[in-house]
Each structure stands twice: as C-alpha cells, then as structure tokens.
C-alpha cells in the first residue's frame, strides 16, 4: 500500500466505522422488525434531525453554552487549585482528602440542591458542568507540579530563585501539558454534567428535550438528542486536542501526534 | 586564603526512624580559583558535599563557609550542573542558557531592557562550546553531548565565582566525555572560577582538577588529598603520560582499599 493510500485510509477509518455500525443497526431494525418506540432506525433518527433541525439547534445551543461556561470556570478554578495543591504540601494535605470526598458524590444528587438555591434555568447546568469537570484538571495540574525534577529545583535554588520564581519559571510551564491533557477528559465530563442537570430538573437544553420527547414516546427525537450530544462532545474534544497541540508542542517533541 | 571551607562537617539523613550517616567529619578547603575533584566509591556522600556547600542542605555538625560567610541557607548565584542536563524542554537552547539572567541579581533587573546584550553574551559562550548553530533548537533536538554543553553554558553564563559539577559527564559516551573535559578546562582557564567536581571517573578528576580528594565508603570521610602537579593546558595526550597514569593508579589503589575494607 502506498503512503498516500495508507494515510487516506487512516483518515477515512472513523467514518467507515460509523457507517458500518449504522448500517448494521439499520439492518437489525429492518430484519427483526424492531418497533420504533424501542429502537428507531438510524434513517428515521436522521430524518428527525432534518425535520426538527431548528429546535435541535436551539436546544443544543443552550446545552453547549452552559457546558462551555462551566468548563471555562473549571479551567480557571482547577488551575488555581491545582497550582496551590501542587506547590504547597500543607494545602495538599488539607484539601486533597476533601476534594476526593467531593468527587465521590454523585453529581446528580447535587442538582436538586442547586435548584433549591438557583431555581430552574441555566445556572444549575453551569454549576454541575463546573463541579464535575474541575476534578481531573486539579489532579493533573498538581501532578505536573509535583513531578518537577529535584535537580531542576536545585539549579534554580542555588541561583537564588524564590519559590514564586521557581513556580513561574518551571512549575507552570511544566504543568501545562498536564493541564491540556486533562481538558480533553474534562470537556466530555462537562457535557455529562450539564445534561444531567437538564435531565433531572430543567426547562431547557438537549437533556430536557430528550426527557420530554421520551415522555411523549417520541423515541426518534430522544435518539436525535443523543446524537447531537455526541457530535458536540466530539467537536469540543477536537478543539481541546488542537489547543493542546498548539500550546505544548515541546511536550510532543515536535512530532505530529493525534 | 580559602574560598570554600568545610570544617568537621557531617550529615545524617533521617528517613522515618532510620538514620543514615552520609558524611562523617569532612574537612577540606578550596582556594579561590582552584578546581578540585572529589572521588570515591558510589554512595560515599559525594553528592551530599555539593548540597552542603551550596546550602541546599544544612550540615548536622560542623560548619561550611563560602567566601568567609557561614552557609546557613541556599547561597545565591552558584553555577550548578548535574549528570541530568535538566534543560527546560519548552525553551530553546539560548533561552535555557539565559535562565540564570532572569533570576540572578543584578542581571535580573536589567534583563528585559538589555536582552540583546545578554543574547550576544550567550551566543559567545555557545560559540566556545561549538553550539552556535543550535541556539534556536530545543533541547530534545540536541544530542546528549550537546545538551550537556548547553548545561555547562547555563551554569557559567552569569560568571559565578563557584561552579558545582555533579558527575556532569557521567551519562555520556567516552569520546564525548573526553572532548568535554577539554571544553571544561578551556572555560576554566579563561574564567578561573572556583570549581568543585564530583565524579567517579579518576581520569576525569586528574585531568581537570588541581587537587583530588578521595572519600571513603559510607559514611564518607576524606581519606586522601592529592595535588595534581601536571602543567596546563592538559590534553588527551597528557592522559597517556606515565606521570598521569601513576597518579590515577595511586588514587585507584586508595579506592581499592576502601572497597576491600
């Protein structure tokens, strides 16, 4: 196989895989005559996509912006918290157990409380996206700081660098690849967070759309919602991966890494 | 007049309840502009000496003085190079070398405004180690030997009075290592800083140093002080001369005794 064809095939692979899966799905539905209310055929889901495109886009937009706002807040908060935990053993021992305890709480249990505080609307979705996606960011940034080579630290200390200078010159650049790696995980979690909030108690967003369509036994629309979330998730993941590659080229040793 | 003074210095590491005496009663002094080497069996506390002199570790007993001042906390502006080049992968070679300028006074204050001047200085230094064409490359684009040359440049750019070398050539192949001895000697002949080299390579120690100290097994103590009266500049040819070989032999013998004991 020539290089060109190998490359083309590599790029085509994800699409081919999706196409094969959808075909299989379609085939199973036709052969076994599966009722639409249980499992709609992909072509049916696609037609719902076309027919209800405006509504889907409007609801997607709600989900997307709440997710992104929660995610951006998580980056800011996670970076600060991660730096604090990574830089100071005292903050680490004080906060880390608490952080793990908090992360163990199912976020779905938070939504009713958030609704008591903030009512129904965008805020619970933003906050849920925030709390669910901050954890991997904090842990990764702290790990990046904690794994600075001791020799590097010694070199700087013997030059007379202060703790702050060591943090700025070594700690933060060193933590960047860890931060960007965590963003890919965090953004998908953020979607889970906002959709959970919309599903448990919301009047907006794709989660709400799916819930109300489900209540009307409109399974094709529910599936269209699932597809929409998946597409947004992949899109945001791709953006994070691109930013990662741009910002921390050195960590990839200049190679093209997918 | 000595520049670095260790008087009856010992150090005990504590890990939980276990204590390890890493260095026992070390006494040595280094004159200003002298280049000394510390050799010994592995685990004899050679690297501990580095940390004590620079104040990164406080001694358990005894005292360390540098430039007449008692060392109680990390002293500033020392040049340091380790076996691991510890270059920052997110900086180009020249930016790596300029790092001390961003940290050490008085350069720190002038750095932003006089960047061009400092860059010229870094380029000159890079030239002396033969890396002019690699200034804008990243460390991971350089070979191990080139990385170690950059590391030496970074340790020297701010013209420190004291240079600490902890097995800087230990991880290199024999040819590169011997080549870098020459580079190191040339830099020292030009700048005459005070140098402390920790190594387990006896030929390296004899090639580079004015005085070689042999340490015993753990707990390390200084068991032999040997002045190296070979003329400079020394070359690779020197290392094959009988006198050079004799000195290496003598040191070797002493270390053998340590291993046998």
UniProtKB/TrEMBL annotation, chain A:
PROSITE patterns named in the record: ABC_TM1
Places the protein is found: Cell membrane
Cell membrane found in the keyword field: yes
TM segment ranges: 12-34, 71-92, 99-120, 126-148, 178-201, 221-243
Keyword Cell membrane: yes
Pfam families in UniProt: BPD_transp_1 (PF00528)
Family designation: Belongs to the binding-protein-dependent transport system permease family.
Protein name: NitT/TauT family transport system permease protein
Organism: Enhydrobacter aerosaccus
From TrEMBL, chain B:
Keyword GTP-binding: no
Gene3D superfamilies: P-loop containing nucleotide triphosphate hydrolases (3.40.50.300)
GO molecular function: ATP binding; ATP hydrolysis activity
Pfam families documented for this protein: ABC_tran
InterPro entries: AAA+_ATPase (IPR003593), ABC_transporter-like_ATP-bd (IPR003439), ABC_transporter_ATP-bind (IPR050166), P-loop_NTPase (IPR027417)
PROSITE patterns reported in the protein's UniProt record: ABC_TRANSPORTER_2
Family stated for the protein in its record: Belongs to the ABC transporter superfamily.
Protein name from the UniProt record: NitT/TauT family transport system ATP-binding protein
